[in-house]
Amino acid sequence: MKIAISGKGGVGKTTIMALLAREFQRLGREVLIIDADPSPHMAQTLGISPEGITPIAEMTRLLADRAEKTPGSPFYQLNPQVNDLLERFMIARNGYRLMVLGAIQTAEGGCACPESHVLRKMLKKMLLSANDVVLLDMEAGVEHLGRGTVAGVDHLLIVVIPSRSSVRTALKIKKLADQVRIKHISFVGNLIADEGDKDFLRETLGAEPLVYFPESQAIRKAERTEQPLVSIEDGLDNAPAELVKKIILLP
Questions:
Q1: pTM of the model
Q2: What are the domain boundaries of the chain?
Q3: Using CA atoms, how far apart are residues 142 and 153, in angstroms rounded to an integer?
């Protein structure tokens, strides 16, 4: 099962992805998290030291080899070899497996097209057992859909908070995701303070979010003190476990 998560910047998608990873791990699933956000911090969210993690994007020569353009053409080669990347760039800590795609590190660094191309092919080539779960934390906004990065996933979760700007971005992501024919696309409500927030999301999205995550002081405190968010249990209204349950039950 391959699950991607997206949404407007600041809606809490990395937090929800980490809690989702924890719940799948508790069910005995083999969990691989791929941090494809240009500002990666999934490692800290999981309580994993970033020391020793080599982002794929830093291996510029490798990317040039794996996503080389055909001479005289604007297109990258169709079948880069990516089978060995899991072994070379994945770390296993605290019961999780983690890969970091990385990001452009300098101003005017250009498009992340080679990285996106390699990631897209990696997702398509992965051979998963029934016990494997791949969780893909995408960059904020809609650009990753324009590059087709998530075309190979089974389920896209769109995190949305009760604000007009968040809803507009969520609906745009949903429209683009429909165009690339992702099988399951669901909204996930976050930072919910009361029933009014739920009503607002239902009305503006035109759909019922799969689950609602409450606004959590415990998560805010853990983030500010750089504590792993996967240690948070209280004040979440059982939303992480409920989300996993509903994902598993989807046809």
A1: 0.81
A2: 2-249
A3: 16
